[in-house]
Write a structure and sequence with these properties.
Number of helices of chain A: 8
Largest sheet of chain A: 5 strands, antiparallel
Helix content of chain A: 25-40%
Strand order of the largest sheet of chain A: 1-2-3-7-4
Oligomer: homotetramer
Shape of chain A: globular
Largest interface: A-B, 113 and 111 residues
Distance between the termini of chain A: 25 Å
Chain lengths: ~350, ~350, ~350, ~350
C-alpha cells in the first residue's frame, strides 16, 4: 500500500505534476469484457476541464485522454488500464514567486519540510490538476457499477447555501456552478465574480448522492463504507471535512429522531428516513448513499498575505498565475469520481467475500 | 489490506465480538526496544471502561488487558504484539428481541443483507466493545510517538456546545463527560440523565488535538494525513462526520481569511492561525493537529421505533439491554487512540521514505 | 501489508513466540456461513504436533486450538476468526547458551543485528512453533475451497529420495515420515535415527499436489499463482527453495519437451503432460497444481559448531533443548496449509474480478 | 494490494502489452533528492534490449525510456516516478495463428479461461516485454541502495552448466550470454544456434549475487527476505523455480555441514561459509545475498505441437513471430532488477521499523 494508490481490489495509481509533460493513472483490477473507449471517459473530463467559464481557472487544457493499455478490440482485458493526458498550457514562469516564498494554506512549506525541496511549478504534485486522473479513473469505475447512478452538486459557496425546497437535479448541468437551485446560481455569479475581481477566493460545500447501491456493500469496521468514502474524499485537494448522511447534524439529534424507521416493502424494506446516508454498521442498506464534502477556499490568491521565504525571512506573497476563484466548483466531478471508485472497489470486495 | 486491519507499516488488526469469550488486537510493525507492559495500556482502557458512571452503559467489564506476545523482558521485540481482554459480563438473553427484528440505525439489517445471518448478541462485531482494542493498540502507538501529546474532549452533546472561552484542559478528566467547560458539564448531567430516563439517546461532537507533531509527516494524496485521520476516525462505530481544522466552517471563508499566515520564528515559522488544523497539502506543518468527529446518538434505545422483523413483517422494537445514553462520551479515548495510531504509522512511513 | 500477515482478501495474521503464554492467528475475510468448529482444525494440528514419534522433537504440546471469535452457532459470520493455542511445555532454561552465543544457520545473529536484542527462549518468534498457526489457519482455508484436495509428502530426506515408481498415496499417513514409498520410509528410520543419535540433523524435500483447482485462478504477474505459492512456501521456516511443476528440471529441457500438449477433452482439454505444475502465465490451467519445497537441516544441533558470542568473541555452541532431527518432516502439513491459504485467497480474488 | 504492483513502501506498478502503443511503470515511494535522469536507466534497458545478437529475438526495439513525472531539476521529488517506453516494432499479423489456437506452455489457454478473451498480439500482457519496465524500475531501485552491488549471470543453458572453477565476473559482459565462463560461452553459441535453427528453445538457470547488504534487512516471516525474493523472482515470466543460497542442495546436507560457522571479525563476524545465501531467519546477515532462478524454455516455438483451438477442436500449432530461443538469457538484467527492487523496499522498511 503506497502513497499514490487507492482501492483494495479495484485499485488505481495516479502520477504527474501540474507542469510536467503529462499526468496519468493506472487502473488495476478492472473486470474483463467491459466495453471501454476514450469516449466513455472524455465527457467526465470535459465536465471538470478548466477554462470553460470565467468562474474557473483560465488555463486552457483540452484534457484529451488516451488509453495506452488494458483494452483490446473495445473491451477491457482484465489487465491494467493506463490512462494519460498530456499537459499543454503550462506557464511555469508565473510561479517564480512561489519558488521563493510559501503560500500560506498551500502545500509549499510542508513539502519543503518533508522532502527538502519541491517542484514549485503550478504546485507540482499538490496541484488540483491531479484530480483529472481521478475523474478519468472514476469514469472506468462507473462502468463497473452500471446499477449505480452518482450525482454531485454544489450546495453552498462562501457560506451562501441553496434552498433545499428549490432543489432541481435537472438544473445542475445548466449553470457553471453545478448548482441545483437556479436562484442560488444567480447569486453565486456575482459572489464568485466579486471574489475573483478582489483577488480573493471562496470555499464550497459539495453534496453527492449515489442511488442503486444494493444492501450489503461495505464492511463492519476499518473498510466500512463510511470510512472508505471519507478516506477517498478527504484525499481530494482542499477538502477539510466529510459527512455521511446527516453528519454533524446527527450529533445534535436524539436516538428516536435519528432512527431510519423501516416498514415492509417490495423485496426490500421501505425506509421512512435516511439520516444514516444509506450506510448502517459500515454496510449499505439499499437507500441512497449521501456524502458531503467541505472544500476550503483556494490558497493561491492575488491578495497579499504575510509569509516567510525559503530562507525563513519575512515576506509577503500574492500568487499570480491562473487559479480557480472557488476550487470547490470543479470538485463536483471529482467527488463523483471518488464515490464511483470506492463503490466499484466495494462491489468487487463484496463479491469476493460473499460470492 | 483486509477488513479488520488498519495502518500501513505500524499496523493493527482487531478481532472479537461483544458477547464472545474475548476480544483482541495484534499490533504489528512496532519498533523494537520500547519499554512496554500492561501498565502502559490499562489506564487508557480504564478511561474508556463502561460502568464507571450513570452516564455510560451499566455493563461491568474490568477490561483487564493481557500482552500475549511481542514483549520480552519488558521491551517490545519488533515482532507482533498480541493483546487480549476477556469478556466477563455478557447477558446475551437481553438480546432475544434483536435477534428477531432490526434496530433502525443499527447494523442489524445491513449485516443480515450482507452475510445472510449475524451474531446478534450485544451487536456482535458491530458493538462499540471493539473500540476497547483500538484503545489498547493506541496505547502502544503512543509509545512510538513520545514527542506527541494527544488530548480529546467532548465539545457538544445533543447540540449543546461548550463555550470556547471557558475551555480549560485541566477540567477534562474532572467530570464524567470529558468536558473542558465546567458549566457545560453541569448542564450535560441533566441533559444526559433526562435522555437516559426517557429511554432515548444523544449524539455528541468530539474534538482532538495533537501537539508536538513535527513538520513533514504525511503524504501528498491518498495517504495524506487528513485522509488517514478521516479514514481512521470514520471507522469508529457511530461516527458520521470528520473535520480537519476548520472543516466545514472553512467552506464559508474567503481565501485571505483561511490563510494561516507565517512569520519568521525560532527553528520553525510562527503561524498566525491554524485554520488548516496543522496539515497543508496532506503533510503536517508543525502546528497542532486538530480533528473533530460527529457521533450519532446510540441506535439501541428503549423508545419503541417502527421496524421490520427478519421475515420482513412490520414490527416495533424497544432495545432492552445496557446501552450508553450517549456513545460519544466514551468515544473520547477512542478518538485519541485512532489519532495516535495514525500518527505512529505516519512517523514510521516518513522515516522509511525520508530517512 | 505488514510483516506478519499473508494474503490479499482471504488474509491471516499470526502472533506468538515459542515460549510465550500462547500463539495465535487471526483469519480475516473468510466468507460467511461456513460450518466451522475446533473439530475442523484439530486433526491438521495433530498431524503437525510435536512429540508423536522419536523422529520429531520431544516437546509435548497438545496444541489444542480455541476459536475465540468469528463463529456463531457453528458457522463463520464473515468477521475475523481468532484462533489461539496455549503453550504448555516450555523449558526455557534449556536455552541459556543460545542467549549468549549465536547458532550458525539460525536466526540468532540476524535478529540481534536487526532488533538490537531478541527473545532467545526456544528461538522466540523464529521458532517453527509459529507454523502451528499456519496449519490452523490453513484448516479454515480448506473449508473455503471444498472443491480442492491438497496432499503433501516427503520426497527425500538427507538426499535419499523416494522411488517415483513406488509412489502410493495411501502410504503417506502410515509412517512417521509422511512417506509415500514404504521402502524409503524404512531406510529413513535408520537415517534419521543415526542423525539424531549423532547430534546432527537432516534436510528434506517436500512435494505437494492440489487437485480440483479450476482453470482461471491467479493473475498474470505480481500475484501470479506461481509467485503467490513461492512467497507463501518460502516464508516457512527453514525453506530455501521452491519449485513449481518441473522447476529447475525444466531449465534443462527443450521447448517441445516442456510443452504440455493439449487434446480435446470433456468440458476441459486433456493435457498430455504437466511440466508447468498446473500453472501457465500465472493462472491455473485446471491440471493439478504441483509444488516442491527444500527444507534445510535443523540449525539447532548438538554437534558443536564454531561461532561467536553476543560480544563478538570466539565461542563454540552445541544446542541442547529438544529439536527435530529433520524439521522438514513436520513441514508436510505446513506446506499443505500454505497451499490451501494461497488457493483460498486466489479463489476469492478471482471471484472479485471475474464474477 | 492489486495484481500489477510489487513492493510495500518502495513500490512499482507496471502496465502495457506487447503490441500496444507503449509500456510503462509507476515507481512510488522513492526517497526524495536522488539524482535521476533517463541516462541512469537506459544502460540497464540496453542490456536487456532485444535484437542485439542472433541469440535473442530479432524484434527491433530501441526501448528508449522517458521519465514523465517525479523528477525536478534532475532529482527525485518523492512523488511517483512515471516511466514509459513506446513500442516501435510490432508485427501483429505474425500472431493470427495464436489468436485461434493455444500454444502449449504459454498463457493463451489460461487467459481465455480466466478472462473470457485475450489480447493475443505478441502474448499481450503475458509477453516478456513487460520485463523491460521491471528493468527500468530496478534502475531507480539501485539508486536507493548505492551500498549494494548486484550481479547476475547465466549459470546453465539447456542443462549445460558453467564450471565454477572457471568463474570470472569480468567475462559476464563480454559474450552474448552473460556467461562468466568463456568456455561455456563458446559451447552455448553452438547449443543456442542449433536450437534456434531447429525451431526449438532452451531453458536456463540464472544466478544472482548482491554484495554490500548490511545485516538486518528483512523480517522474520511473511516478509522474510527469502520470501520477498522468491515472490519477486517467481513473478518473472518463465521462471518456475527459485533457490536462496544452497536451495535444494541444502536439503541433502547434514546440519553441521549446512551451518555457516562464524569467527570474530572486524565490525562484523567472519563467516566460514554461505550456505544460507546471506539470509538467516528471514533477515540479512551481512554476507552476499545469493539467489538462483530456473527459466523454462520459451513456449513459442516453430516446432509443431499438438493443441486445441479456441473452440476446443484438435489442432497443431507452430508459432511464427520473433522469439528468443532462450528467454533466460535476457532474464539476467530482469533478475538483477527484481533483486534491486526487493532490497530497496526492504531497506526502507527496515528504516521504518528500526530507525
Amino acid at each position: 500500500m503506497s502513497y499514490n494508490s487507492f482501492g483494495r481490489v479495484f485499485r488505481f495509481t495516479t502520477w504527474g505534476e501540474s507542469h510536467g509533460p503529462a499526468i496519468g493513472a493506472v487502473v488495476d483490477g478492472c473486470p474483463p469484457g467491459i466495453a471501454l473507449s476514450e469516449a466513455d471517459i472524455q465527457p467526465f473530463l470535459d465536465k471538470r476541464r478548466p477554462g470553460t467559464s470565467r468562474f474557473t481557472t483560465q488555463r486552457q487544457e483540452p484534457d484529451a485522454v488516451r488509453i495506452l493499455s488494458g483494452v483490446f478490440e473495445g473491451r477491457s482485458t482484465g489487465t491494467p488500464i493506463s490512462l494519460m493526458i498530456e499537459n499543454v498550457d503550462q506557464r511555469s514562469k508565473d510561479y517564480s514567486e512561489v519558488a521563493k516564498a510559501y503560500r500560506p494554506g498551500h502545500a509549499d512549506y510542508a513539502y519543503d519540510a518533508k522532502y527538502g525541496f519541491r517542484d514549485h511549478r503550478g504546485g507540482g504534485r499538490s496541484s488540483a490538476r491531479e484530480t483529472a486522473m481521478r475523474v478519468a479513473a472514476g469514469a472506468v469505475a462507473r462502468l463497473v457499477i452500471p446499477e449505480v447512478t452518482i450525482t454531485a452538486w454544489v450546495e453552498a459557496i462562501g457560506g451562501d447555501a441553496i434552498d433545499p425546497a428549490r432543489f432541481d437535479a435537472s438544473e445542475i448541468d445548466r449553470n457553471p456552478f453545478f448548482c441545483p437551485d437556479p436562484e442560488a446560481a444567480k447569486r453565486w455569479e456575482r459572489l464568485v465574480d466579486d471574489a475573483r475581481k478582489a483577488g480573493s477566493s471562496l470555499g464550497a460545500v459539495i453534496a453527492c448522492e449515489a442511488t442503486g447501491v444494493p444492501a450489503g456493500w461495505g464492511a463492519p469496521l476499518y473498510a466500512k463504507l463510511d470510512s472508505e468514502l471519507a478516506s477517498g474524499i478527504m484525499s481530494i485537494n482542499a477538502v477539510k471535512g466529510v459527512e455521511i448522511g446527516d453528519g454533524f447534524a446527527a450529533a445534535a439529534l436524539r436516538g428516536e429522531d435519528n432512527a431510519d424507521a423501516m416498514r415492509p416493502g417490495e423485496g426490500a424494506p421501505t425506509f421512512l428516513a435516511n439520516h444514516a446516508g444509506g450506510i448502517a454498521g459500515g454496510i449499505s442498506t439499499g437507500q441512497p448513499i449521501r456524502v458531503r464534502a467541505a472544500f476550503k477556499p483556494t490558497s493561491s490568491i492575488l491578495t497579499p498575505v504575510e509569509t516567510i521565504d525559503r530562507k525563513g525571512n519575512a515576506a509577503e506573497i500574492a500568487t499570480r498565475g491562473r487559479h480557480d476563484p472557488c476550487v470547490g466548483i470543479r470538485g463536483v466531478p471529482v467527488v463523483e469520481a471518488m464515490v464511483a471508485l470506492v463503490l466499484a472497489d466495494q462491489k468487487l470486495l463484496h463479491r469476493a467475500q460473499c460470492g
